[in-house]
Amino acid sequence: MADCRRVRLLALLLSLSSCMYFTQGLKAPSNSNDNLPDNADALRNQGGPLQEGKLAAVAGASSPRRGSGWKLAEEEACREDLARLCPKHSWNNNLAVLECLQDRKEETEIASDCNHLLWNYKLNLTTDPKFESVAVEVCKSTITEDVHSQGEVIACLEKGLVSEAEDQAGHYVIKDDCKKAIMRVAELSSDDFHLDRHLFFACRDDRERFCENTPAGEGRVYKCLFNHKFEESMSGKCREALSTRQKLIVQDYKVSYSLAKACKQDLRKYRCNVDTTLPRGREAKLSYLLLCLESAVHRGRSVSGECQGEMLDYRRMLMEDYSLSPEIVLHCRGEIDTHCSGLHHKGRTLHCLMRVSRDKGIMDNLCQKALQTLIQETDPGADYRIDRALNEACESVIQTACKHIRNGDPMILSCLMEHLYTDKMVEDCEHRLLELQYFISRDWKLDPILYRKCQNDAARICHTHGWNETSEFMPPGAVFSCLYRHAYRTEEQGRRLSRDCKTEVQRILHQRALDVKLDPDLQRRCMTDLGKWCSEKTEPGQELECLQDHLEDLGSDCRDVVGNLTELESEDIQIEALLIRACEPVIQSHCHEVADNQIDTGDLMECLVLNKHQKEMNEKCIVGVTHFQLIQMKDFRFSYKFKMACKEDVLKLCPNIKKKVDVVICLSTMVRNDTLQEVKDQRVSMKCRRQLRVEELEMSEDIRLDPELYDSCRQDIKDHCQNVAFGNAQVIECLKDNKKHLNQRCHQKLFKLQETEMMDPELDFQLMRVCKQMIRRFCSESDPKNMLLCLKQNKNSELMDPKCKQMITKRQITQNTDYRLNPVLRKACKADIPKFCQQVLSKARDDTELEGQVISCLKLKYADQRLSPDCEDQIRVILQESALDYRLDPQLQLQCSEEIPRLCAEEVAAQEQTGQVEECLKVNLLKLKHEGCKKEVLNILKESKADIFVDPVLHTACALDIKHQCAAIPPGRGRQMSCLMEALQDKRVRLQPECKKRLQDRIDMWSYAAKVAPAEGFSDLAGQVLSSPAKNYILSMMSMCVVLLFLMGLLCGRITKRVTQELKDR
């Protein structure tokens, strides 16, 4: 071992395996004749045709070993070159002379005779006992009898060196000086495979099979054999010998003649081999060479095409065979044995390890780091062809989906990611692609396009190092996280990314949205939460959706990163690549203008929400858009446009409120109160009020967007609306239809919603959807707050759509159940309601309908003509509407629920309600058994005295007579009814028979009503008189009676008691 230590780098051992050719007495082996032609081939390559003198040199070199005093410098063939190229102090050391001439011959011409002499000296070098002593210790299990068997010593030492690097069990520790010598021998044999005798004999047949036409010299045969290493017909011995040589190249790139030669100038140019005194130091490793030169390429520096070609070959070599990377062999041994045994060929083992790391997450940290380092060294992101497993799996996809991109372009990987989970993607390619992208995503530098466009921004903002420099303190994905945090900054915030860098960051974000594992920061922080909440979510994109759904339940670190990502999505929804794919038809039809904008700022999602129910919208898109809307409810920051418009208002007016729905309620309440109080300077800013409007409209579409209402009504939805689909406010409408059966809490919340909708009809999604065309036709210029009023006014138009008319009627029925649901009536009668209906109000409960009691109270006061003018006008409208449709009178419906089906079934079944049911009840007044129903019908009769318009049957029958007899009399306060009654009594006036009959019926009904429902007090009596059609007659008679009584009193008093003058004078 001491001898081996003294050997200089010249340990030209390995290649010189011919040392093994000779016996201990250094006699030519019996098969030396077989070797000569190979040597001759080498000579032809080096010096042209064989000459007798050159063969003699070969023979001389093959002769028995010279004495120990023989000097290479004394040989005539090399004396001139030696004097010219090598320092004189080295002449006494044969190894130093050989090393000098070997190194310099690439730069200058050396005499051919000297070349041949050096070649043969190298061939015979390893017969030196100095190598034998080491080989016996290292290879005692392999070399049993003849230590000089063909190339065995060198091969054994090489394997010993490799075993030590891989920390294999039972390896022999070789000292550093000897390692240097072994590597130097391998380097000196790098140009001609004949010099590596072990490999030569192991691969002789394979060379003829695969590389017959490849000339020897300059490492060409080595490269040819490397390319065929995994061919099925390659012999096992040759494959093993090739692997050993490749492993030596990994440890020292100079063992590859072609690589060292091609990249020599570039290495010097970029100072990649500064420490030339340590051939096996860091600078000598293949990984260092690759990283250094790849760094230059990524920085846009010039590296020769020949060198880049060699680098490509060796990067592919490392990706194909994991065993060439000693760190992976050393640290991933357990994972390989457990999960990846038997997958050695064509990079399958590496992809298996990548899959274990990605899917199982149980990989040792050192193994994970070794894999990440290998991916950086090979840099498959720059050229997908380096990854043979990926190349073969994705070849068909590349030919179809990415054929427009130049072969080997870095954009191929991006193209494949864009087609992930599409019909063009095949399963095997999908797996290989995600396995590779898992590691590329953990180092932003491994995406060459991103690095090229963002390296200056990263250095300026994120304080990054060079391409081939790493920081132990910077976790995976930290640089990219830094970049995307600055990608969407405004000019006011400063420190923005350049436009090109932002584009690339957006591209990466779009790709990462496809799989949560492609976001290392998110996966690292959410590992526990993913296992706890989302273990069953395996479909594309489901894991992130799951984390968003459980946002409140996540750990603080995970909640922060998911929140930040969701906030980012709200600004640029195109990050959600799967959603954008699903929504492509509706985007092309309705949102292409905003989709084409380079700056999104939430416009695209807003467009998708507005067009959520277009015919182009498919189920996947609807689900995706709705899910994003639901997520936005969790935090107002998740709605970009709302956040930007209302951030200052929220901080000032609604501090400490985070949930978007609560923020919307807080701000909208302030807007409503300020509007009702007619405050001049509203507290909520104009831009926030505009965006608040958008948010309120969106929330009205789906009950799930109002979490408080949804939670309160969850059980009722299950009981009454189980088969009703969410969206289009269908569930809300279902609850309205079943409100009598709802639990108290749900009923209260629904009442509050209806109150809001009636104050602002635009928030009534079903009304606005069903009546969309009618609004355009009749109410295009109306104030949105008066939209329902406008529709009611045009309800009976011949052009009114039947479905819209039906919806308007439903809203009228709702309004008449409680005055609070009719904002116009509430405002007009705000003084009359507490004045006349306090008894009803005192029994009322908040958030519960009064079932029309207040309106019924106001109707009676209308009949008594005691309401204020504004309130009277509104009650008249209600009376007219309810007279035509009994359903608009909730008290009548409630009290006569049994009588109406029993007595008026045909009228109820009529398609159009024109007052037939009320007329039926009036006609059958004597048949009514329920006192409450009878009272309501009597009230209707009482109300009809006040205005003929509230009696549609009578008004229709007498319309012509009113026109002829009462045209000059204004309607209201019973005036036209009195006119008709006077005309009926006037024998000179001939009324229409139908009108006359109807009037006589009404007189009979009023008479009966007066009998069964006498006045309950003086006020009622006065009201009945004043509302009577014959009130003038009654009042005149009453006046005559009073006058008569007065006169009688005067006269009778004089007669009955005369007082004498005397009595007066007392």
Automatic annotation (TrEMBL):
Q: Which GO terms describe its cellular component?
A: Golgi membrane
This protein's UniProt keywords: Glycoprotein, Membrane, Repeat, Sialic acid, Signal, Transmembrane, Transmembrane helix
Q: How does it sit in the membrane?
A: Single-pass type I membrane protein
Q: Where does it reside?
A: Golgi outpost; Membrane
Repeat (Cys-rich GLG) positions are 173-233, 302-361, 362-424, 496-555, 616-675, 683-743, 799-866, 928-988
The residue range of the signal peptide is: 1-25
Q: Could you list the residue ranges that cross the membrane?
A: 1033-1056
| Source species, domain of life | Eukaryota
Molecular-function GO terms, alphabetical: fibroblast growth factor binding
Q: Which InterPro entries match?
A: Cys-rich_GLG1_repeat, Cys-rich_GLG1_repeat_euk, GLG1
Q: Which PANTHER family does the record match to this protein? A: GOLGI APPARATUS PROTEIN 1 (PTHR11884:SF1), SELECTIN LIGAND RELATED (PTHR11884)
Protein name, UniProt field: Golgi apparatus protein 1
User: What organism does the record attribute this protein to?
Assistant: Electrophorus electricus (Electric eel)
Gene this chain is encoded by: glg1a
